[in-house]
Amino acid sequence: MMGDAEFVFVLIAVAGGMMASNRVRYDLVALIVVIALIVSGVLTSDEALSGFGSPVVIMVVGLLIVGEMLERTGIAHTIGNLILGYGGRSETRLTILLILGAALLGSVMSSTAVVAIFIPVILRIAADTGLQQSRLLLPMSYAALISGMLTLIATPPNLVVSDSLQEAGYEALGFFSFFPIGLVVLMSTIIYFLAFGRKLLTGFAHDASEQTMGRAKNRQSTLQFLDDYALLDQFHLVEVVSKPRADLEAIFHDSEARVLARSRPSNQHSQSDAFVPGMELLPGDQLLISGTRDELGKVSELSSFKYLGAVTEATGQWRESVGVADILVHPEAAILGKSVKEYAFRDTYGVDVIGVLRGGETLADPFGTSLKIGDCLLIAGPTEEIDAFFDRNHDFVLLRVPKEREERPLVPNKFLTSLLILAGMVALSVSGVVPVVVAVILAAVAAVLCRTISADRAYRSIHWSSIVLVAGMLPLADALQKTGGADMVVEALLEIAGDGPPQMMMAMLFAVTAGLPRPVGATIKACGKTLDMTNGFRLLGLPILPRTNP
Questions:
Q1: What does the entry list under GO cellular component (predicted)?
Q2: With contact defined as beta carbons under 8 Å apart, do 60 and 466 qualify?
Q3: Could you give the CA distance from residue 392 to residue 37 in angstroms, rounded to a whole number?
Q4: Closest Cα partner for 40 from 9, 66, 64?
Q5: Sign of the four-CA dihedral 456, 457, 458, 464
Q6: ∠ CA(326), CA(412), CA(219), 5° rounding?
Q7: Is 125 exposed, middle or buried, given 0-12, 13-18 or 19+ CB atoms closer than 10 A?
């Protein structure tokens, strides 16, 4: 019969396999782990659910709010613009500044958010300089990952390790305890990319004659966006000849065509408004409709409407009412594996998908094809809905907006306030006046009280799936400790290490941790207690804490 310790090992293996398969959501796997620990009797319900009240989880929530504050007040984007300004057209300078900038931001906010912020910046840099995008994106991505080694709050595993040490009776890690090693790794990364890494990346810098073309490609108009997605012939103008008897929503009920806006002529100029179901239509109104020519045939057949043709000229009259944006599907998006039609995109997000690119090619059936990681979507809808689209969810990364609507900080007048809040959080964390978790909570509360971010937006900024993942996996550590599984692992490692040097134990710990699936490794507390590192290190005569703990 399987013992409790063996059951926990099997559970870890099954959870790791489910995560590695990428067929089951990570947060769902974490909840399955919690349920399995309770049903099996390995842990009580209070013990299995203790992760949701862990200081680590509370701290992660607070840091997500602080990171959102930095983004909405323009601090994060200011760093990106400074890189663009000081980097010039030198690939070497740009690479160094991108790595340092991404690492700096990542030391106080989510690395995923850092990447999302820097992607549009790099696309603009690549277009302005003619450099290959991959030669800038990859160094930035590595820097965002390495940023987790710079400060205590940079990534959840650091917080988990510090919390584990406190529970074991040791002093908690300081704010910059990771910094010495992290700095060495960061500098090594810069040297590697400058000396070797760039040679391994495909593509070389374009010559100066292509720079203008690249610049134009990035700073595109709405019409150029439509051309990228081969949609120029799928935006149509229809004039209302007489008041229609049928509702437009009923006309296009079984069609992929969408009415986006209505333009009504006045004495001086036409006024356009985003279309909403039930909107009044009068003779002389013009409608902007997306869809194929065949789908527009239903309207052309009605005497109340007159087809004017495809949109091939300036779209200025529609600019204030209808916006477009180029977005990338996030690797953990809920829509992965589903089609736009199946997911009811418009009902879910309030905007329409009008085109899908996969590998640079336009999908023939953008609405019925299941979406994959890396797919790019062109969305259209009311400008306020597009702005709210990125406030409501974290399933997509903004790549580009038309040059008519360059991105601006949403709360620019709170720039200095957010800087002071960030500085205060770091100062309190470094000084040790209050625990780090308290400093983070104070910063999150101050961000809302000082109106750098609304309370509703603060809640929406929290990646709840990540919170459930961390909270659900933490009890595995307690399960291994309670069942004796941790002692079994330590004894096995000590037997392998034998009389070998202490570095052998360190290497084995590193290998075991690195070999776990990333979401499991992210809850490093399980790993630390699994190996019962404190007991193992004592037996080998190794120090538990670094010699210097700032």
A1: plasma membrane
A2: yes
A3: 33
A4: 9
A5: positive
A6: 30
A7: buried
Domain boundaries, the chain: 4-23+478-540, 59-65+412-466, 75-213, 224-318, 323-401
Q: How do residues 318-350 score in pLDDT, each as one tens digit?
A: 655 677 888 888 877 778 888 888 877 777 777
- Written as six digits, the tokens of 6 are 């063996």
Pick from 121, 113, 120: nearest CA to 97: 121
Give the span between the Cα atoms of 434 and 444, in whole angstroms.
15
Cβ pair 65, 453 in contact under 8 A: yes
Distance CA 429, CA 435 (A): 7
Q: What is the pLDDT of residue 208?
A: 34
Structure tokens belonging to residue 330? 């996030």
CATH number corresponding to 323-401: 3.30.70.1450
Q: What is the CATH number of domain 224-318?
A: 3.30.70
Helix, strand, coil share of the chain (percent; to 5): 55, 10, 35
* Alpha carbons 428 and 439: distance in angstroms, whole number: 6
Q: Does the fold of domain 323-401 match that of domain 224-318? A: yes
For residues 519 and 26, the answer to whether their CB atoms sit within 8 Å is yes
The residue with greater pLDDT, 81 or 317, is 81
Handedness of CA 119, 121, 124, 128 (dihedral sign): negative
Residues contacting 424, CB < 8 A, separation 6+:
439, 442, 443, 446
Q: Would the pTM of this model clear 0.85, i.e. be above it?
A: no
| Cα–Cα distances in angstroms (integers) from residue 63 to residues 52, 58, 145, 233, 428, in the given order | 16, 9, 16, 46, 14
Q: What is the pLDDT of residues 498-527, one digit of tens each?
A: 677 777 777 887 777 776 655 554 554 445
The whole-angstrom separation of Cα 72 and Cα 470 is 26
